[in-house]
Specification:
membrane, transmembrane, Transmembrane protein
């Protein structure tokens, strides 16, 4: 069966959120995204460019643990890599905004 094709990010994002209902899965995404930011900042400060090799390991590692163990679904990044990357950061930004409001 051919996966649904989304014509815009706005159309894709509700699907993305539906694939992240488990709170542990979302937390693992947030942890991975936070570590990504730390790695990037540290790399820019120290100019140890080899550290960037950790980016896919950290980002996919935390996210895939969440999907395969807790959410029990197939990560959207397999079918929609660019929309999924964008959606990860939108979801992360929404989480940060919620934390600031508390």
């Amino acid at each position: 069966m051919e996966p649904k094709r989304y014509s815009s990010f706005a159309e894709f994002y509700p699907f993305y959120l539906s694939q992240h209902q488990d709170p542990v899965c979302r937390r693992l995404h947030y942890i991975g995204s936070s570590i990504i930011l730390v790695i990037i900042i540290n790399t820019l400060i120290n100019q140890h460019w080899w550290q960037l090799l950790w980016l896919p390991v950290v980002s996919y590692g935390f996210a895939w643990l969440g999907h395969f163990i807790f959410e029990k679904n197939r990560p959207a990044t397999f079918t929609y890599p660019l929309y999924s990357l964008w959606a990860d950061w939108v979801m992360f930004g929404q989480m940060i905004r919620r934390l600031w409001r508390k």
